[in-house]
């Protein structure tokens, strides 16, 4: 073991890094250290990562945080299949989609309180259109990449919550998004990281009542 990934099984940001670790085959090199976010141990903030958030990676005597930075760090510093495209057009589109990911997440969360369909239709339509850009595979850049890793943990949770609680089906009229979810669900790197849907619903309900 040459690294430790501090994570929380419920956290979509931490899930991004967990999927990357699995996809690159680093299960024996990077140990998962799961934390309970409801009851964070004092030593984590004091000795490991002062911002007290997950994910954080301990590697080569350094601690790094922020999920997308960590996804890129694992890709750059470890062996295993690359998740960064070589093609310049794909690279540029990857940057655009990564910078949109916070807008996507924020828009969907804020829609829970409002008129869901009106607020989330445009963001899910944006994803559907983005999935049409490269047709050499079902993922955002055709082949599986860091863009899918950035979005899938959130798509997974939003699909569950929106359909169960708000009766909105994110895949209706969006065949490419449906295909993306179907293909992602077959990935060995992703399967073990999925959250129990009941936990997702409960966590989002809590978030809603706290707003």
UniProtKB/TrEMBL annotation:
GO terms for molecular function: glutathione transferase activity. Pfam families: GST_C_2 (PF13410), GST_N_3 (PF13417). Its EC number is 2.5.1.18. Keywords: Detoxification. This is glutathione transferase. Residues 1-82 form the GST N-terminal domain. It comes from the Eukaryota. The keyword Manganese does not apply. It comes from Linum tenue. It catalyses: RX + glutathione = an S-substituted glutathione + a halide anion + H(+).
């Amino acid at each position: 073991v040459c690294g430790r990934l501090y994570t929380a099984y419920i956290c979509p940001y931490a899930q991004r890094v967990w999927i990357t670790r699995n996809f690159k085959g680093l299960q024996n090199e990077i140990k998962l250290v799961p934390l309970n976010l409801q009851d964070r141990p004092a030593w984590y903030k004091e000795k490991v990562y002062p911002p007290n958030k997950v994910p954080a990676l301990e590697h080569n005597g350094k601690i790094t945080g922020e999920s997308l930075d960590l996804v890129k760090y694992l890709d750059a510093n470890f062996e295993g299949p690359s998740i960064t495209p070589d093609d310049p057009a794909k690279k540029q589109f990857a940057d655009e989609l990564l910078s949109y990911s916070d807008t996507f997440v924020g828009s969907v969360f804020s829609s829970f309180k409002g008129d869901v369909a009106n607020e989330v239709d445009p963001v899910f339509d944006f994803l559907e259109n983005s999935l049409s850009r490269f047709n050499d595979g079902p993922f955002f850049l055709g082949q599986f990449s860091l863009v899918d890793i950035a979005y899938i943990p959130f798509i997974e949770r939003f699909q569950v919550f929106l359909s169960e609680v708000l009766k909105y089906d994110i895949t209706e009229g969006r065949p490419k998004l449906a295909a993306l979810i179907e293909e992602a669900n077959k990935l060995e790197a992703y399967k073990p990281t999925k959250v129990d849907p009941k936990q997702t619903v409960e966590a989002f309900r809590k978030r809603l009542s706290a707003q």
